[in-house]
Each structure stands twice: as C-alpha cells, then as structure tokens.
Amino acid sequence: MKQLYWNICGEGSRDLVLLHGWGLNAGVWHCIIDRLAPHFRLHLVDLPGYGRSKGFSAMSLTDMADIVLQQAPPQALWLGWSMGGLVASQIALSHPERVQGLITVSSSPCFTAHAEWPGIRPEVLAGFEQQLSEDFQRTVERFLALQTLGTESARQDARLLKAVVLQHQMPEVDVLTGGLEILRTADLRQGLAICTVPFLRIYGYLDGLVPRKVASLLDSAWPETQSVVMKGAAHAPFVSHPDDFSKLILDFSQQNQA
C-alpha cells in the first residue's frame, strides 16, 4: 500500500498538520519548525506525488484530501499553504469534526480570476500547463520565482524554495499538471461560507498569485473568520517573515484551545 511521507516532530501536546503548496514538499517548513516545535506536535506531510510521497498519480482535490486524512491524527489544527490551503479547506468541509482550527496561508478558495473575483488569469495557468510538457523543471522554477517577487529578500527566498524542490526527485509531470488543474478548477467559496471551524486566513501584501483584495472580499463574505495581511510579504510569508508568521499561528492556537 502506498504511504505518504509523514514526519512527526515537536514537543507540544497539540497536533498541527502542515500542507505545502504546488511543486514543493514538506521541506519548505524548515524556516519555522524550530519556532513551532516547542508548542506543537508537528505533522510534516509530502502531498501525494510530491517530495517523498512517491507512487501516486494525479488526483482530484477530494481524493487528495481523503488520502491525507487517512494518516492524520484524530483531531488537529490544519495549516495549508497555497494549494495545500485548498486541501486543508476540503478536509474542514468534509470532516469538520477532525479539524480544531483551519489556517490557510497565501491561499484562496478560488485561485482562478473571474469577472468580479481576483486571482490568477486562466491563460497564465494554461501557459504553465503547456510549458510543463516542454521543460518542467524550468517551469517549476519560474513559478517559484513568482512567489517571492517584491520582497526585500526575494532572491534569497526564491533560492530557498528552489533548494527545497531539488532536495528530492521532481514530481512527475502528470502530478504537477493535476495540481494546476486543482488550482484552475477548485471553487470552495460556497462551502467555506458556512464552515463552522475556527478559521484564520494569512495573506502577503505583495502576493502576485493571491491578490490581497481576496482578503477584504472574504472579510465581508465570511465575517466569522479572521484575516491578516502581512506587510512586506509575498506568497511565502513564513519564509520571508518567519517570526511574525509563527506568532500568528501561536496566537490563533491559544485563542482556539480545544
């Protein structure tokens, strides 16, 4: 039976599951592990087909969420970055009894731009999908570079993300294409509007993939949720601002003790 890479560390009594974004793996969290480990039992997961979770083919958002849930603790805080935010959100919708709190980072319930909704233009995602078949390593690197644009530490942060990808064998093209399909088609706005779990949304002020306007639109649509827009941060705020980011997670955890 195929198993996800699932590493548990930390000295805290509360479980925190961390889900990475498209093209990456659990190594992306190394900037904040030391800051969070004294407070949580951290569950560092490589999503199906990514990093060390080999043998999985492309799958739907629902299937990905179901597979992750199989190895998860009975109850936990769930933190998902970018595409991982969609996976964590899907778990909160399908199994709210397993979710003590939901934290999405630089994520959107709908990544694709529509008439009145800000996001990634459909032709940009289609372009990435086409380029994957031609030169998928360079395409992944270009996507990573977009995630750090505008920050003071942009080059350093982009190098760090690239190193995380190259640390392990690159995901298969069909897995990457399937991930882009999730980003292109998923729309959890309706479901999350009635989600009852405690919910914190974290954004980067300079994020070019999830515009900060998403934060204010959801503040109006989901008044029961909390949001923070981190100044000076782009798509990977835990990389560029690890201290400030970790404090947000700790504060949210303390506010929502089980």
From TrEMBL:
**What GO molecular functions are on record for this protein?**
pimelyl-[acyl-carrier protein] methyl ester esterase activity
| Membrane-spanning ranges | none
Provide the AB hydrolase-1 domain boundaries: 16-242
Where is it located?
Cytoplasm
EC annotation from Swiss-Prot or TrEMBL: 3.1.1.85
According to UniProt, this protein's pathway is: Cofactor biosynthesis; biotin biosynthesis
Which catalysed reactions does the entry list for this protein?
6-carboxyhexanoyl-[ACP] methyl ester + H2O = 6-carboxyhexanoyl-[ACP] + methanol + H(+)
- Extract the Gene3D superfamilies matched here: alpha/beta hydrolase
Residue positions annotated to bind substrate are W22, S82, M83, F143, L144, A145, L146, Q147, H235
* Subunit and interaction comment: Monomer.
Q: Give the family, as the similarity comment puts it.
A: Belongs to the AB hydrolase superfamily. Carboxylesterase BioH family.
Q: Which PANTHER family match?
A: HYDROLASE ALPHA/BETA FOLD FAMILY (PTHR43194), PIMELOYL-[ACYL-CARRIER PROTEIN] METHYL ESTER ESTERASE (PTHR43194:SF5)
Q: What does this protein do?
A: The physiological role of BioH is to remove the methyl group introduced by BioC when the pimeloyl moiety is complete. It allows to synthesize pimeloyl-ACP via the fatty acid synthetic pathway through the hydrolysis of the ester bonds of pimeloyl-ACP esters.
Supply the name of the protein: Pimeloyl-[acyl-carrier protein] methyl ester esterase
**Species assigned in the record:** Yersinia alsatica
Source organism lineage?
A: Bacteria, Pseudomonadati, Pseudomonadota, Gammaproteobacteria, Enterobacterales
